[in-house]
Design goal:
251 residues, alpha/beta, Rossmann fold, four-stranded antiparallel beta sheet, disordered C terminus, binds adenosine-5'-triphosphate
């Protein structure tokens, strides 16, 4: 960074992550400016979720550094600025919390949770994600897509400066995808930084102007989405087809 330039929202430098004794991310460097909307793409297993988990501090790095808003990710002071929706957000597992209760936990202050239950932001966000009629339904009685929407509302309720989302549209119907994409768009236009793992740009295709593509734990593209490799350049598609179909492919 040049002196006097704005502090980036996310700064990942030479990040390595090993899992189960094997390298999963290797020498990943990435800077996201405050207010940017970045799509993170790549084949299954390329390391996208691992990178997001490291970015929000739930996955330890084996080497390298991660800073959010100029502070190390381990610094608890940055956590209040971050909203994170993990992949396949299960929304409380078997705990029979209602949608309203789950979203209100995003406003945690110790001991102040109950009083936040009727915070107007909770109802407003449940309405934004199309669940206003389900506020008092236990999330154990919701579909996967409905739970995903609850967890998106939970991540948004504290108005984070950085929103980190792992496949937020997974399991969500198309109409609701558009509604949620509109929320992300609005937040981005107001200066919220958004880093989102996507398989397809889908409802965000007009909004994502920077795509970072991972391939086997390395960044292989960082730029305009239309210039990204169409498929994993090192992937052996013929071998995969042969394995799946038990036959050779002849072009
Ligand atoms: N706990 C773990 N122990 C060992 N290896 C793991 C562990 N978690 C993930 N991996 C491996 O790390 C690699 C990257 O996984 P990751 O979930 O980050 O990929 P991804 O790009 O998010 O994939 P997908 O698109 O399928 O969600 C994969 O090869 C996966 O098998």
């Amino acid at each position: 960074m040049t002196p006097g330039s704005a502090t980036p929202a996310v700064s990942v430098e030479h990040l390595d992550v090993d899992l189960g004794g094997a390298p999963v991310l290797h020498d990943v460097s990435l800077e996201v400016a405050a207010g940017e909307l970045v799509g993170l793409l790549g084949a299954n297993g390329s390391g996208k979720s691992t990178l997001l988990r490291a970015m929000v501090g739930v996955q330890a790095a084996s080497a390298g550094t991660i800073s959010l808003f100029g502070r190390p990710v381990k610094d608890r002071r940055v956590h209040a600025k971050v909203g994170y929706v993990p992949q396949f957000a299960a929304g409380g597992g078997s705990i029979p919390a209602t949608a309203r209760e789950t979203v209100a936990t995003g406003l945690l202050g110790p001991g102040r949770w109950f009083s936040r239950l009727h915070d107007p932001r909770v109802d407003s966000l449940l309405s934004d994600v199309g669940l206003s009629g389900m506020a008092d339904r236990p999330i154990t009685q919701m579909s996967g897509g409905q739970r995903q929407r609850v967890m998106i509302a939970r991540a948004l309720v504290r108005s984070p400066q950085l929103l980190v989302l792992d496949e937020p549209f997974s399991g969500v119907d198309v109409a609701t995808q558009d509604a949620i994409a509109a929320i992300f768009r609005r937040l981005s236009q107001r200066g919220t930084t958004v880093v989102v793992v996507l398989h397809e740009l889908g409802p965000l295709s007009e909004d994502v102007r920077r795509a970072v593509v991972l391939d086997r734990g390395r960044v292989v593209h960082d730029g305009a989405p239309e210039d990204r490799p169409l498929f994993d350049p090192g992937h052996d598609h013929q071998a995969l087809h042969e394995e799946c179909l038990g036959q050779e492919i002849h072009p």
